[in-house]
Amino acid sequence: MKYLVQLKDEERTQLRALLKVDSAPTRKLTHARILLKADQQGAGLHDKLIAQALDVNPRTVLRVRQRYVLDGLEAALDHLRPQRFKPKKLDERTEAHLIALACSAVPESLGHKTWTLRLLADQMVELGHVDAISHETVRVYLKKTS
Asked: If you average pLDDT over every residue of the chain, what do you get?
């Protein structure tokens, strides 16, 4: 086991007090039980035994151990999913071009009466505003403006 849980006395007391409270989120209570069972001062059980006892996946036990060792007790108890940062496809200037294009008339050469999301995406690429863009991304940007 790479991540050994060695709870301090006050942490152990805090976890036991948390388990007596009924209003805490279930996931938080499960993580508290995992830490108490993994504690080297107490039972110090193996991940598979803890997982079987608490009816969770062994990977969950590993992640809780890891989060406790690397980030501390609060991080191990509060399951916060990492925020995924995805850079914007269009900057303000390019977004303005998209909106202007959507508000303009469709060229007759395209053979449509109104803009479709796919036509707008293709036209943005053709005009050189972006290298590639999906019709779904176009939809999201246009939805923000309406």
From this structure: 89
pLDDT digits (tens, 9 = 90+) for 43-88: 678 889 999 999 999 999 999 999 999 988 998 888 766 667 778 8
Backbone angles phi, psi at 45, to 5 degrees: -70, 160
Give residue 1's pLDDT: 55
Q: What are phi and psi of 96, to 5 degrees?
A: -65, -40
Instruction: Report the alpha-carbon distance of residue 135 to residue 65 in Å, rounded.
Output: 43
Are 54 and 37 in contact by the 8 Å Cβ rule? The answer is yes
- Number of other CB atoms surrounding residue 6 within 10 Å: 12
Burial 20-54 (b: 16+ CB within 10 A, else e): eeeeeeeebbbbbbbbbbbbeeeeebebeebbeeb
Determine contact, residues 64/71, Cβ cutoff 8 Å: no
Give whole-number Cα distances, 19 to 5, 78, 94, 116, 126, in Å.
18, 14, 53, 56, 61
CB atoms within 10 A of CB 4: 12
